[in-house]
Amino acid sequence: MGTWGIGSFDNDGAIDWIMDFAEEQSLAKLHSAFRMVSDENGTIESIDAEEAIVAAEVCAALRGNVSIDFPDEELVEITREPLLISNELITTSIKCINSILSKSELKELWEETADFDNWNEDMKELSDRLQACLMKAT
Fold first, then answer.
1. Phi-psi label, residue 64: left if phi above 0, alpha if psi -120 to 50, beta otherwise
2. 90: pLDDT confidence band, cut at 50, 70 and 90?
3. Quick one: pLDDT band at residue 136, thresholds 50, 70, 90?
4. Cα(26)–Cα(37) distance, rounded to whole angstroms?
5. Which residues of the chain form beta strands (DSSP E)?
6. What is the mean pLDDT of the segment spanning 78-88?
7. Residue 137: is its pLDDT beyond 60?
8. Rounded Cα distance, 7 and 50, in Å
């Protein structure tokens, strides 16, 4: 049985993605995770939503608004020689979080649980941290 929880890093897919990213960091990987959500006209697949959420967490962390739940080892790796995260990429990540909150399989799965409100608040907190990144100078 896989791991699944309300936090951005509380599922197997998210942990796999951040571990892979920490080993081989690139802006292309971030763009790819966001593109899977941005290009979707229908319901966003759960795995695509999970990966975009973690990619958004990476963007927030590299702009100084790291989640208290960010895995320590991966945080050390991504901040050793950090990628430059543009305001455009932050804006894209915010749009993806909004899409996930409105039309994703992940949202539908959480709506079926008693933890939906907590998950929703966690996603809004991520969106708020991303918004704060836009207020900071790059």
1. left
2. very high
3. confident
4. 18
5. none
6. 95
7. no
8. 10
CB contact burial 46-55 (16+ within 10 A = b; e otherwise): bbbbbbbbbb
Question: Sign of the CA dihedral 22, 23, 29, 34?
Answer: negative
Strand partners, 104: 44
What letter represents residue 68's amino acid? I
> Which letter does DSSP use for residue 43 in this model?
P
Q: Give the separation between CA 74 and CA 64, rounded to whole angstroms.
A: 15
Please tell me the distance from the alpha carbon of residue 89 to that of residue 92, in angstroms, as a whole number: 5
Closest by CA to 138, choosing from 93, 85, 97, is 85
Task: Give the pair of three-digit tokens for residue 5.
Answer: 């929880």
Task: Identify the bridge partners of residue 44 per DSSP, sorted by sequence position.
Answer: 104
In the chain the first and final C-alpha atoms are separated, in Å, by 42
Paired tokens of 86: 């543009």
Please state, in angstroms and rounded to a whole number, the distance separating the CA atoms of residues 7 and 22: 19
Alpha carbon distances (Å) from 60 to 4, 117, 131? 22, 22, 9
Give the CA count within 13 Å in the CB-facing half-sphere of 80.
10
Write the single-letter amino acid at 110.
Answer: W
